[in-house]
Specification:
Elements: H1 26-58, H2 63-71
Protein name: Heme exporter protein D
Transmembrane segments: 20-40
Keywords: Membrane, Transmembrane, Transmembrane helix
Length: 72
Amino acid sequence: MSTNGMTDWAVDLGEVAAVYPFQGTEFVMFILGVAFWIIWHILQFRAEKHEVDHEMESDETGDKTREVIGRF
C-alpha cells in the first residue's frame, strides 16, 4: 500500500519528493501547537480566577468557614 508511488525503499530518499503526507508543514504545525497551548493556559487561568473570585465573594467574612470548621 504505497501512497507516494514508491515500490522499493532501496533508493536515495534525497531524490524522492514526499515520503510522508503534509511534508514541509512541520513548522506551521509546531506554531499552531504552541499557540493552542498558550491560549489554553490563558483560558484556564481566567476560568480558575472566576471560580476563586466566586468562592471568595460568597464568604468574605469567613464566618461560614469558621462555622463548618467548628462542627468538626
